[in-house]
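Predict the 3D structure for this chain.
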Amino acid sequence: MLPLPAPESPADVRRHNLARVLRHLADHGPSSRGEAAAATGLAHGSLTALAADLVGRGLVREAGTSPGGGRGRPRQHLRTVPDRVVSVAVRVTRERLHLAVADLAGRLGHRADLAHATPDGDPGALADALADAVRETAATARAAHPGAHLAGAFLAVPGPVAADGRMFSTDFGWPGPVDLGALLRERLGDTAGPVVLANDANLAALAEYRALAVRRGTAPRSLAYLKADVGVGGGLVIDGRIEAGAHGVAGEPGHMPVALDGPPCACGGRGCLALHLGPEALTDAAGLGGLRAGRGTEAAVAALGLALAEGEPAAVAALDAAGEVLGAAVLAVTSLLDVDDVVLGGYLADWYPWLERGLDARLTGRRILSAGAAPVPVPVPGVLGADASLAGAVALARETVLADPASVPPL
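Done. Predicted structure below.
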């Protein structure tokens, strides 16, 4: 959930209260004005005026009546209009762009999966490919939802995103920070609305956190998410919110050293976790380096999955070793952060049965932290698969509108 800014001016107070009303209706379903006023703590007269504003923006409509419980008139209910707002969600990987159109309820419509072959070290080329894909998807969204407000394009990108919007990514061969959002805005103009970037692992962490809360019926206080696909990343969720840290890298384990005398990394360090769990490392260890060089990383990762399913010794041995490294990373993360849960994503979730033996070997006998004060959580595979980051981008789009309904113009 996005934090609401502290109200300062009367306009800020009204914006804040609009968000309270819209969020209540979005999260709890149709409500009468009296029920919404009681739930939000707003006076009935204020609630009526705020509801009229939301109706005028097309975000809320009247939705039938129910008995008033006395001699008074039946209570008129209010409900959200999910298709009043649509957004474009994008998951960016080294080789592909995964796009989806979603409404305010998070329901997916049009989807697209496009290959891109942008050269290393050229963020402009990636911005060109993204702009073409987003522009086309936005046009499709407008055609499918005439009259809907386009909330913008929300991108899950493989690298930390700083507070100033700059993105860091060794996966694309960029030597330093790049303001990919600014490059994309220059190319799109106002054709797709605002452009928002967030780290893909952070968004996946938030999506898996919510999925875990639904499965259990209660949300954990904290969750650490570790994933490997384009690269190795992670995220930290505390009380339902992403904790990104001062520079956008909190909970990111990819460049955590696990072997101080290990091979050099593009980040400038040595022995980083990404060098042991990344797709290049695992496919090479399984004897698939030639395939990766000839047909690309995604093809080699797919081949490794098949080799594991067939029990090929080199593939199984590679995952045994990777499981031990992953176990060391889990111990480091949980010792430092004391989280309730650890969820694995990407192919760490897909290949969990082959990683489990190495994980157990590293974690056995280390199930307790701080002299018995806290158990080490057993890592569990995520349930959202490759769609976790995209689901997180859809959730970010929804939360952005719910946090500021005034961003949607009146009809």
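The first strand starts at residue 31 and ends at 32.
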